[in-house]
Amino acid sequence: MGTRPESGERAWLNEAIRRVEADANRSADTHLHVFPLPEDWGVDLYLKDESVHPTGSLKHRLARSLFLYGLCNGWICEGTTVIEASSGSTAVSEAYFARLLGLPFVAVMPRSTSPEKIALIEFQGGVCHLVDDPSTIYDESRRLAEETGGHYMDQFTYAERATDWRGNNNIAESIFEQMARERHPVPRWVVVGAGTGGTSATIGRYVRYRRLDTQVCVVDPENSAFFAGWTDPDATGSASRIEGIGRPRVEPSFVPGVVDAMITVPDAASIAAARWCSRVTGRLVGGSTGTALWGALHQIADLRSRGEQGSVVTLLCDGGERYADTYYSDAWLDAQGIDITPYERVLEEFGASGVWESPT
Fold first, then answer.
1. 21-53+167-353 has which CATH code?
2. Model confidence pLDDT, tens digit, residues 309-322
3. For the chain, counts of helices (H) and of strands (E)
4. Are 98 and 122 in contact (CB under 8 A)?
5. I need a surface site. Which of 30, 86, 217, 263 has the fewest CB within 10 A?
6. Closest CA relative to residue 37, chosen from 221, 304, 240
């Protein structure tokens, strides 16, 4: 019988997994904040604050899961160069875990990526590989992996399978444990964005597995492919101005069968909701949180219109500090031709009276 001489490899693997798990243990859990709504509405809104992770976003969970998945599949070994197609928060988080394990990390991203995002990745020890055509980031990542003998993480394929959706401290299990003592402990809706599709897949599978009466709503920014892809897997879109959730194609990790409703959200509404949330809660939030909040408020308005009560949960995906020069810049909005005023009026009126009127 032949055996592989892997005692040294297994020792490195054991230590690598220990370090990743130790990071999870140090991080504990993220807070579930109550959003201020009138109590007599009978509908409660909660924000799961993923911005408090060590790398500042929901993607810290994904990066941890992807690294554990790659390690346990034997794809990531001592000295492996880790490569990802990402110019956003996933790359920041993966660079963090690569440095934790002493591994080189390369983020393949469009040349138009903001200097601020590049600086965040480099701060975590990553190298940024810039390409002129954004549509080539996937193929270029595969090419670099082959050239270096490295591993292409491919978040858009593996996000939905790298996380154990039955439990094991995933985001769904965390939400429902934290909701256990609330007045409406089983949410009527959990509202999330479709970035890779991994979060909606995890939550959608979990509520079915646990036989819960919770429904999953996915919000999608304008021009993104996911809304059309809910019924047509061949649908295409274009690049999104709301970082982290909109995609020009339906990613392999998107599982439409576990999604109960979808809402497409104009970029102006996402930004207006992010700014409004920051004013109301005192917590500066990013654009994807605004998209999710707009969808959550839409569901709350629908519950109230039917005289129903319950709870709604959504995610505070990352902090707004990263977007001072975009979503929180009036000059940037003017340059993009975005007018958030009609959507701000909708939010202010809803907050004051509970009446939801679509912007004209």
1. 3.40.50.1100
2. 999 999 999 999 88
3. 13, 10
4. no
5. 263
6. 304
